[in-house]
Write a structure and sequence with these properties.
The complex is a heterodimer of chains A (237) and B (298). Helices cover 14% and strands 34% of the residues of chain A. Chain A has two helices and 15 strands. A six-stranded antiparallel beta sheet of chain A has the order 1-10-9-4-3-2, with no helix packed on it. In chain A, strands 11-15-14-13-12 form a five-stranded antiparallel beta sheet, with helices on one face. Chain B has 298 residues and is of the alpha+beta class. The chains are: A alpha+beta (237), B alpha+beta (298). The interface between A and B is medium-sized, with 26 and 29 residues.
Chain lengths: 237, 298
């Protein structure tokens, strides 16, 4: 299994939170990002500031395949970030240099992933998962640096004090796998994916690989939520 | 983005220390109390005696260094340094028939220069003040004139036009308002505005910023009007409503301090006043509330 994406690609938000028309605000390695989806479904991850007067793009809204800044109505094209329209000078085509700063991003395993690395050769994230039967459990902010989060999760895996027959394990470089005792399938598991938000703050994202009936979904998510709350309280202690 | 904005603090520059600063509306001060204010990261105390005497000093106890004070436009002004000039003038302020109304003092999490730029900006009317000071499709900003006047002491922008659905309280129909802007102080700006198509009425709005820190201000707003129909409270409320639309914009500008290197943020033709303002701050050596990148260090 290739893990070259590690340290470069990170999940930043559950894909379903990036609804059409919405501009979400996240942080990755101290870089604030505006995440939005165009009407064709394409996801964008942009530096969260308009290059004109620095207003957060996350205050703006989308117009199909453009994002419009809330301050002066400048419009920027999906994918390229190129400014397409400046309302104060409607007759002038904006210069090529007027662009939003864009980052590589994609939608996979129910999450939006971003790489701040500008080298295109970084392989896309690959986990030992199919695309079906996945549940984006939740994303919880942890007020601790990423290194603390990883140390905690690795210790969890090492000591394996989970009261479960199957071991907690580290798969890929930073991804932790926890066996789930759902009764549905012996192979059910929860993957934990840490994301460095800033120097002092991280996020743990959870992907469950489990078949959960619609009626059982809410209790299932509540159980996972208890787990996440325990992580947060342990790490922040 | 954020990493390059860490600027080593080198202490407050003299030119900024020597300016006059507004501390708010004198009529609104309770008499007989020592009132703490913050100006340029410095705690100061002001007092209005029972007999109407005003005083100000540095720190919280009355042994602090006494500060110079002025009363101008109904506001109390002070300086932490030695002012080289008096508080700027608004000659129209005392003209007969004018009502000068303190429209509010509002805390904003931004730098003083970002707040000034927003006040000087014509291009945001149709988006931030939609259906009041602007509306689509009337978004085009025609070329206007910007000049630096009176030995570099003031920026003046003239022949600024904007179509406004509701240019002022009580306006019943849209029309093309004419604006004139003055920037007589690094952290204070004035606009003169025609408020209807059929008479010569000019309203003057003043924005006087009291910088608390480099990234936090109190915005004191003054309105000088020939409106004789509406109450002070109604006029104040309209002005505060307009400002309440700007506040979330100001608090979401990244970085909060104004980059003076004009290559840092992209400008359009309509930003001529903003560009002139950035150059003007740089020419005066005003650093507080700004970011001066490599350009200033070359």
């Amino acid at each position: 299994m290739s893990n070259e994406f590690c340290g470069s690609w990170f999940p930043v938000i559950r894909a379903e939170e990036v609804a059409y028309g919405h501009v979400a605000r996240v942080q990755l390695n101290g870089q604030e990002l505006a995440i939005w989806r165009d009407d064709e479904g394409h996801i964008n991850a942009w530096e969260n500031r308009c290059p004109h007067r620095g207003v957060r793009f996350s205050l703006g809204h989308t117009l199909g395949n453009e994002l419009r800044c809330q301050y002066h109505g400048w419009r920027f094209a999906s994918r390229t970030g190129q400014c397409t329209y400046i309302p104060a000078q409607p007759g002038h085509k904006p210069a090529q240099v007027v662009k939003a700063v864009t980052y590589a991003c994609l939608e996979r395993y129910r999450y939006v992933w971003v790489s701040l690395n500008r080298t295109p050769a970084i392989p896309e994230p690959t986990l030992p998962l199919g695309n079906d039967g996945l549940i984006a459990v939740r994303s919880l902010q942890i007020n601790a640096p990423m290194t603390h989060v990883i140390t905690y999760l690795r210790t969890l895996a090492k000591t394996n004090t989970w009261g479960n027959d199957r071991p907690i394990s580290v798969i890929e470089c930073q991804v932790i796998e926890i066996p789930l005792d759902t009764g549905a399938s012996a192979a059910d598991r929860l993957l934990l994916l840490p994301q460095p938000a800033s120097k002092a703050c991280s996020v743990i994202h959870g992907i469950a690989d489990s078949t959960v009936e619609d009626g059982a979904r809410l209790p299932f998510l509540r159980r996972q939520n208890e787990l996440f709350k325990r992580f947060k309280s342990d790490i922040e202690q | 983005m954020s990493n390059s904005h860490n600027v080593v603090s080198v202490g407050l520059e003299e030119v900024t220390r020597n300016l006059w600063y507004p501390l708010g509306d004198i009529a609104g001060l309770p008499a007989g109390h020592d009132l703490q204010r913050t100006l340029l990261d410095t705690t100061i105390t002001i007092r209005l005696d029972k007999d109407g005497e005003l005083s100000a000093w540095e720190g919280t106890n009355s042994y602090g260094r006494g500060l110079p004070i002025r009363q101008q436009f109904g506001y109390l002004w002070t300086s932490l340094g030695t002012p080289t000039r008096e508080v700027f003038d608004i000659p129209e302020f005392n003209h007969p028939g004018r009502r000068n109304i303190h429209a509010g003092s509002i805390g904003v999490h931004t730098s003083a220069p970002r707040a000034v730029e927003n006040f000087l900006d014509l291009g945001h009317f149709a988006f931030v003040h939609r259906d009041y000071l602007g509306v689509e499709p009337f978004t085009e900003i025609k070329p206007y004139r910007v000049r630096v006047a009176d030995d570099n002491t003031e920026i003046v922008a003239t022949q600024c036009y904007a179509y406004q659905p509701v240019a002022a309280l009580g306006a019943t129909e849209g029309y093309e308002a004419e604006y004139l802007y003055r920037v007589p102080h690094p952290y204070c700006a004035l606009l003169y505005k025609s408020v209807s198509a059929d008479d010569a009425r000019i309203d003057i709005i003043g924005l006087f910023l009291q910088p608390i820190t480099e990234e936090r201000v109190v915005a004191h707003m003054q309105l000088s009007t020939l409106d004789s129909l509406h109450s002070d409270a109604a006029i104040r409320e309209f002005q505060q409503f307009i400002f309440s639309q700007d506040k979330p914009i100001l608090e979401n500008q990244v970085p909060k301090r104004l980059p003076l290197d004009i290559r840092t943020e992209i400008s359009a033709r309509a930003d001529a006043t903003s560009t002139a303002y950035r150059r003007w701050l740089l020419s005066h050596g005003v650093r507080y509330g700004t970011i001066q990148s490599e350009l200033a260090q070359e």
